[in-house]
Design brief:
The protein is of the alpha+beta class. The chain has four helices and six strands.
Length: 141
């Protein structure tokens, strides 16, 4: 599922180019680094609780996914050294209602307002539909 057929390069409103692709198990460090680039307010809005870092178990849960019941897309800055993560969108299917999933999107603060969250949500919706999910549920603060 992490093949190049599912990858796309997009240009954000301020000209940053980002590679959008399914998350991979080897993205643990990039995910942790991206979390560190979020303000405390953005981290709270994403996790609905104060979060300063993710432990190994959490990083494994968020990156080693099945691409059916748990799917995530990442956006990586292609023109910056090390291709840092810019954002992530994910869904996790509700085990009691298989046509429903909880969804979340987070974009690092310095790239918010450039359309990346919308782009990530669009590819997430397409993946959800392919996997039989018809409704997203989420919490907004």
């Amino acid at each position: 599922m992490s093949g190049s057929a599912h990858e796309q390069i997009v240009t954000l409103r301020k000209g940053t180019r980002a590679l959008i692709r399914p998350i991979r198990a080897e993205d643990k460090e990039a995910l942790a680094d991206g979390l560190a680039r979020l303000s405390s307010e953005s981290r709270y809005r994403r996790f609905l609780r104060p979060v300063t870092s993710l432990n190994e178990r959490e990083l494994k849960y968020l990156t080693e996914i099945d691409y059916t019941n748990h799917y995530a897309w990442v956006a990586m800055a292609v023109d910056e050294p090390g291709e840092p993560g810019l954002g992530v969108a994910r869904y996790i299917r509700d085990p009691l209602d298989p046509e429903v999933a909880e969804a979340a999107v987070a974009v690092v603060d310095d790239h918010q307002g450039q359309g990346l969250g919308t782009m990530l949500l669009r590819v997430l919706v397409a993946a959800a539909r392919e996997n039989g999910i018809h409704t997203f549920r989420g919490w907004v603060l």
